[in-house]
Amino acid sequence: MGGVSNASLPLPSSDRADVAAALRRALLDADFTADGLLELLGASAYAALARSETVPALRATRGDGALAALVRLFLLQETVPHARVADVLPLDALLKSGWLVEGDGELRATVDVRPYGGPGGEDWFIVSDLGCAVGGAGGIGSHDEGVVLGVGGASTTLAGITVRTPVDSALDLGTGSGIQALHAAQHATRVTATDLNPRALEFTRLTLALSGAPEADLREGSLFEPVGEETYDLIVSNPPFVISPGARLTYRDGGMGGDDLCRTLVQEAGARLNEGGYAHFLANWQHVEGEEWQDRLRSWVPRGCDAWIVQREVQDITQYAELWLRDAGDHREDPERYAARYEAWLDEFEARGTRAVGFGWIALRKTGAAEPSVTVEEWPHPVEQPLGETVREFFDRQEYLRAHDDAALLAAHFKLADEVVQEQVGLPGAEDPEHVVLRQHRGMRRATKVDTVGAGFAGVCDGSLSAGRILDAIAQLVGEDPVLLRDRTPAQIRLLVEQGFLVPVQA
Fold first, then answer.
1. Long-range contacts for 103-107 (Cβ within 8 Å, ≥24 apart)?
2. Which residue from 79, 237, 391, 420 puts its CA 20 to 30 A from 308's CA?
3. Exposure string (b/e) for 88-123, b if CB count within 10 Å is 16 or more?
């Protein structure tokens, strides 16, 4: 782009829905889709794009086909001869609306267009600044203050953990290029999308139009300011959560001290949720000397909300600073400037007593319970996305356990969750295992140790007998006092239900 700032480039006209619709038809006709890309490029070149390596894709698109030309034009940001796509694209309309520019018979895209497969097999397109889609020509590495990024790992993680029940209203706070609004439009009657960056709102409009999705109510402003006192059934946000020494890059830096932006966002969400509504956030949080990080996060949870907070990763302050300096391409600059910026990050962390930074997700559900449930845990292990249904079931189980004391649990019926296996661990040849592990192959893919009673109980649960009757049978089998067994087992049953190994069923 000859050093021109992305944020200073004019965007395609977003009020020409007919042009976006015509471009969408042309892209689909040429199989410019996620599946089409994989078939054209091959798995290796396709995976390389996610690492911002474009050489394999450039080699794979040397042919004369229409799809190869579109990949070069919209995803790799190469110039393409006018004649090569004249029969493929509505060029007059695209040039007039600003999707393309032309010089000396060569066409260049003004925005980055990435095919994206929806959860139901939909063919969507995410529109972002040039070189700023994951897999775009330049990776991220941008110093443009107002740059708008495309879809990345954080975006898809948030989309995957969001509960997707039909709702009347949804809010995408800090919409960026519009991926969360696009997902929400599939199951929400009304979608509101906000962003501090007006350029991001235009990109969201383009993303929705090019994906054939309904329009959203777009509002400019910070945090919840654009929506006032309005309430929603669903709130999602992938905010600028990076803890940095200053608000240098809008897409990344929150502009508040430490993790205050994420804390404020979570705390204020409770008042904007309708009863039974869900809120989902990605966030960073500080690990501070003399304070348990779990306690820090519990203090963020708004009144009247159940919460499930999962820490997926922790980095020490040097790793964290290096990650985000590289993200902005600072490591390619003058070494002295890089060192000065590195020092500034470490100074910021030292001043706040920060020894590490955690990353993960925060889910809230508005509840009328007198004593809401707050679960804060660390789970760095692989999970099965999408997790939205797992999140919904987690909160349903919290509601169930809150309504059932130990006596009610013993009277209840349970069945073993699908795809749970039992593993026995011990020395070879030993008569009895040292311990028994139940392991999930779905959702969070948890594993938990149980004693022989717990293992036997879980194995028998098929919904036909109450928990108490199963324990009485086990007591008779092992020669234990059934009253004592009933007394000490509900805690184990409660844990197995909470973690999703046992599912309550109607008698």
1. 105/81, 106/79, 106/80, 106/81, 106/82, 107/73, 107/79, 107/80, 107/81, 107/82
2. 420
3. bbbbebbeebbbbeeeeeebebbbbbbbbeeeeeeb
6 in helix, strand or coil?
A: helix
> Residue 125: phi, psi to the nearest 5?
-135, 130
For 272-327, the pLDDT digits (tens) are: 999 999 999 999 999 999 999 999 999 999 999 999 999 999 999 999 999 999 87
Question: What pLDDT band is residue 40 in, cutting at 50, 70 and 90?
Answer: very high
Strands 217-220 and 232-237: unpaired
Tokens of 496: 């197995």
Q: Tokens 């929506």 map to which residue?
A: 227
- The tokens describing 148, both together, are 């708008």
Query: Which two tokens mark 122?
Result: 């939909």
Q: What is the pLDDT of residues 118-177, one digit of tens each?
A: 999 999 999 999 877 544 434 444 556 688 999 888 999 999 999 999 999 999 999 999
Q: Is 481 helix (H, G, I), strand (E, B) or coil?
A: coil
The confidence score (pLDDT) of residue 430 equals 74
**Dihedral in degrees, nearest 10, Cα atoms 127, 130, 131, 135:** 30
- pLDDT category at 3 given cuts 50, 70, 90 is very low
Q: Tell me the CA distances in angstroms from 99 to 16, 21, 399, one per residue in order.
A: 11, 13, 50
Average model confidence (pLDDT) for the chain?
Answer: 92
Cβ proximity of 369 and 431 under 8 Å: no
N residues, the chain: 507
pLDDT of residue 133: 57
**Which tokens hold the place of 427?**
């020395």
Strand 420-425 to strand 435-440: parallel, antiparallel, or no bridges (unpaired)?
antiparallel
User: What is the rounded distance in angstroms from the CA atom of residue 252 to the CA atom of residue 147?
Assistant: 10
- Which pTM does this prediction carry? 0.94
Peptide bond preceding 56 in cis form (omega within 30 of 0): no
